[in-house]
Amino acid sequence: MKNKIEDGGKKMKKFVSEFRDFIMRGNVLDMAVGVIVGAAFNKITTSLVNDVLMPFIGLIAGGQNFTDRLNVVLVKPTYNEAGEVVDAGVTIGFGSFLATIIDFIIIAFVVFLLIKLFNRARTIALKRKLEAERAEAEAKAAEEASKPKAPTQEELLVEIRDLLKAAYGSNEASDNNTTT
């Protein structure tokens, strides 16, 4: 029984360790930061659409609240004698839907620009890396070209032959003459 408890404790420690390693990976942290920044950016764009663009569009459309003007009321709300809403009624919110579409388009456009900017930066970084690698390869090739080349095997053999001829050339000639 004690061994099962100890094994369970070891498994739990391993599980917690693996989970900690997973959470501390760069990708997970980057994703978490992205979600938080995205949520904050969503609030900014929603405010831009609802507080800046929609009133301006409403002004152009006749000076009314554009979001409310496009709503279709199917069942009117009912109120009690104190003026409190008893039944909210049924409304189709085309204006709110349009504001949400505009909000989405703005967010999609900004994300498009960010991706385009990121891709451009990545392309520039890749070009710089390739240029540096090419310059390094050219420098290495120039260094190799400036080094004196070692003679080939054939060149060494020719040199040895010539040295032997110079050293034994006269003796060889006299030996050849005597044997014939």
- Tell me, briefly, the overall form: elongated
Structural class: mainly alpha
Side by side, the strands of the main sheet go 1-4
CATH names the topology as Non-ribosomal Peptide Synthetase Peptidyl Carrier Protein, Chain A
Please report which band the strand proportion falls in: under 5%, 5-15%, 15-25%, 25-35%, 35-45% or over 45%.
5-15%
Q: What is the ordering of alpha helices and beta strands?
A: HHHEEEEHH
- Outline the low-pLDDT stretches: none
Assembly status: single chain
Mean pLDDT: 80
- Count of strand segments: 4
Number of helices: 5
Q: Summarize the amount of helix as a percent range.
A: over 70%
**What do we call the CATH homologous superfamily?**
Large-conductance mechanosensitive channel, MscL, domain 1
Tally of individual domains: 1
Q: Which CATH architecture is right?
A: Orthogonal Bundle
Written description of the protein model:
With 180 residues, the chain is mainly alpha-helical. The chain has one domain: Non-ribosomal Peptide Synthetase Peptidyl Carrier Protein, Chain A, CATH 1.10.1200. The chain contains five helices and four strands, in the order αααββββαα. It has a two-stranded antiparallel sheet. A two-stranded antiparallel sheet has the order 2-3. Helix 2 crosses helix 4.
The gist of it:
This protein has 5 helices and 4 strands. It has 180 residues and is mostly helical.
Topology:
Elements: H1 2-23, H2 26-60, H3 66-69, E1 71-75, E2 78-79, E3 85-87, E4 90-93, H4 94-146, H5 153-179
Antiparallel strand pairs: 1-4, 2-3
Helix pairs in contact: 2-4
